[in-house]
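REVIEWER CHECKLIST
Item 1: Sequence provided? yes
Item 2: Single chain? yes
Item 3: Sequence as submitted:
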Amino acid sequence: MKNNFYLLLTLIALSSTACSDDSLQKEAVEKKPLLIKKEIKKDTSEAKKTSISEYSFEFKNLHDKISTITMKNDIYTFSNVEQPIVMVSLFATWCPPCRGQIPHLANLQKKFKKHFFIIGALVHDDIQKNEFIKFMIAEKALFFISTNKKENLRFAEMITPKLGLKKDFPMPLMILFYKGKYFTHYEGSMPEEMIQSDIEQLLKKIK
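Item 4: Structure as written out by the authors:
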């Protein structure tokens, strides 16, 4: 009878160990899919880091003429612009340095019109159309000016961090491009001779 009792205890102990092993195996199987899922999530994150950024901006003047700027991998493509040297000038009509700069920019475009093109872009400005026409005549703004304020601001918000500038950047902000690549920029009013010197430097590359 005593032997039967010990035999029964041994069978119970073996039965308990088997249940514990089954639980461990079951737990291991349940954990395995979680490990696989974690690896897939990591790979997806890495793919996002290598994605290519591309931007497009539509500049439109008072005559509904359009010039689109497309930027991909820091290469800028200007539609309807044949000149290899392009300047984008961000300005406002209420800004005295901006007004003072306009005639000088007009002179430069006239002087180098074969190779140089200016795109003015109004930002942070609520001037009305009729008033702006008067402004252009008074300030001799004889170059393309985009009044598409929403797109102008989008461009400003894209380009200023690339130049290491804050949202409240100094105006006028003039960015010079050569064959679709950034060359230099000017913060605030600049002497006409300084900008002309940079243009002439780029013209030597064309020749």
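Item 5: Key structural point noted by reviewer: Strands lie at 54-60, 66-72, 75-78, 85-91, 116-122, 144-146, 173-178, 181-187.
Item 6: Recommendation: ____
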